[in-house]
Amino acid sequence: MERVLVLNGPNLGRLGVREPEIYGSASMADLQESARAWGSALDLTVDVRQTDDESELVGWLHEAVDARAHVVLNPAAFTHYSYAVRDAAAQVTTSGLLLVEVHLSNPAAREAFRSHSVVGAVATGTIAGFGFDSYRLALEALAARLRG
Ligand code: DQA
C-alpha cells in the first residue's frame, strides 16, 4: 500500500477553536480520523501530523523523501513566506513523489498577504477552499494519479 504523510503547519492544532467561521468547528483529531478513513477507502496508508515548528515540518518532508511517501501538505502560514518549507517540498516532487498543497480556506479570497504561496510552484497541485474536503480531494487526486 502506498504511504501518504498528511502534514499540517502552525496553528492548525487549534482547529475547532481558532476562527471557526473560517476554519470550521471540527478539530485536528477529527481531521486525523476522517483522513485515515478516506485513505483506507483509497488503499492509502495515511499518517496525519501537525506541528507549529518549521524545522519539524522540514524534517517530516525529508522523511517523506527517504521513506518514499507521498505528501498532502497544509503549510498554514508557512505557505506565504517559508523558503525552508518550499525547498523541502521541492525535494519531495523532484524525487518523483507527489505533493498536494491544501488549504481549508481559499487564501486567494482573503488578505493580500495570503494570495501568494511560495510552496505552490513546487507542488504537484493545489486544492483550496473546501474545508476538510480539500484533504479528501487531495487524497483522491493522489490515488487517481498513482493508479493512472
Ligand atoms: C490556511 C491558510 C493560511 O493562509 C493560514 O495561515 C492558515 C491556514 C488554510 O488552511 O486555509 O493557517 O493554510
TrEMBL record:
Substrate binds at residues 74, 80, 87, 104-105, 114. The active site is at residues 23, 103. This is 3-dehydroquinate dehydratase. It holds the Pfam family DHquinase_II. GO terms for biological process: amino acid biosynthetic process; aromatic amino acid family biosynthetic process; chorismate biosynthetic process; quinate catabolic process. CDD domains: DHQase_II (cd00466). The keyword Amino-acid biosynthesis applies. It is an enzyme of class 4 (lyase). Keywords: Amino-acid biosynthesis, Aromatic amino acid biosynthesis, Lyase. Catalyzes a trans-dehydration via an enolate intermediate. Homododecamer. It comes from the Bacteria. Belongs to the type-II 3-dehydroquinase family. Pathway: Metabolic intermediate biosynthesis; chorismate biosynthesis; chorismate from D-erythrose 4-phosphate and phosphoenolpyruvate: step 3/7. It catalyses: 3-dehydroquinate = 3-dehydroshikimate + H2O. InterPro entries: DHquinase_II (IPR001874), DHquinase_II_CS (IPR018509), DHquinase_II_sf (IPR036441).
